[in-house]
Amino acid sequence: MEEREKKIFGISWNVFLLGIVSFLNDMSSEMIMPVMPSYLMEVLGTGKLLSGSVMGAIESMSSLFKVAFGYVSDRFRKRKVFVFAGYALSTLAKGALAFTRYWWDFLLLRAVDRIGKGVRTAPRDALIAESSEKGKTGKSFGFHRMMDTLGAVAGPLVAIALIELLKSLPAETAYRYIFLLSAVPGAISLFVIILFVKDRGGEVKRKIKGISTLKNRNLQLFLAVVAIGALGRYSYAFTMWKAQELGYSVVQSIAFYALFNLIYALSAYPLGVYSDTFGKKRMITLGFGVAALAALAFAYARDFYTLIAAFVLYGIYIAIEDTIPRAYMADLAREYEKGTIIGAYHTVFGIFVLPASVIAGWLWGSYSLAYAFTFAAAMNLVAMVLMTFVREQ
């Protein structure tokens, strides 16, 4: 990163702008995320196993494309075009959900949205790394995740307001209006990318001669741990279904979800900053432990306070998991292959997230949600133990 680049709040202008873009897009996404579980089951009529599998497929879909587009952006040293294209695909797909009639066309549009995420994520994360000071990747990624998640706080609150404004309409009609309106903040973010975000990849002159970092045994072990931990990453939808199982309404479950995102947003930046000195490997290990506690809290929650504790722990866990591994991979990667290496992490994670939600959906349908959350806790405990064998970088 050029030293003369303008900074704001101690981070580069590029990282700040990408934070604004993520805020707007996550607001867009989270306007529809809280109503999707109810839309799937109440409007489209899907069952428990299919609902869990669809939500898991959605979570997993984007990751299958991340390593490919990370590699392509490394080859061309251009990140911005992929960032823009990915956000544009997602914005169009979210708005088009207003016109779905069946679970399969819903899944198709969500797949397009997730493909858009797959196109943009690794190039965007590489651009964040390239726009960061050496040794401060945790701070940059922490700020970015904070902004992203503040959008996730705003989105459900907007959704609640819209549900109240549209309560005189049939639920199905209200959901469709929310899907349509969700495209507005996404469209605004596209103008921010076009007008203000700058590429940094061209500043790296060395040609790519291979992806040698992927041959590092320590990195391979870390990716194996990521795969096991991903088997314990249940979709956010299961947490909302848990709240509804305890008798809370859709609007109340959205409020719980907003609390989770608020904890996530407040935690991501300080945890990212702290990881630069505490150690990213130790922070990731701690995250798996917090994940296990959160899953057990959801499994055995019977009252308001235990459910609140579960959402708080879930927010801290996701703040660690969605922030620190990206910075850890960016630190491991050589300058000319950051997109590829970060994309490899996202792809491994995404491949194993799909069976995680399918298993959770099957356990829910065959037994109960408690079994689904207990399975998640077990996978995270195994990942935490195995993480002790990974070396700090």
From TrEMBL:
Transmembrane segment boundaries: 12-29, 49-69, 81-104, 174-197, 218-236, 248-271, 283-301, 307-324, 344-364, 370-390
Keywords: Membrane, Transmembrane, Transmembrane helix
Topology relative to the membrane: Multi-pass membrane protein
Occurrences of domain Major facilitator superfamily (MFS) profile (ranges): 14-393
Gene Ontology MF, one: transmembrane transporter activity
Major location category of this protein: membrane
Listed PROSITE patterns: MFS (PS50850)
Name under which the protein is recorded: MFS transporter
Organism: Thermococcus aciditolerans
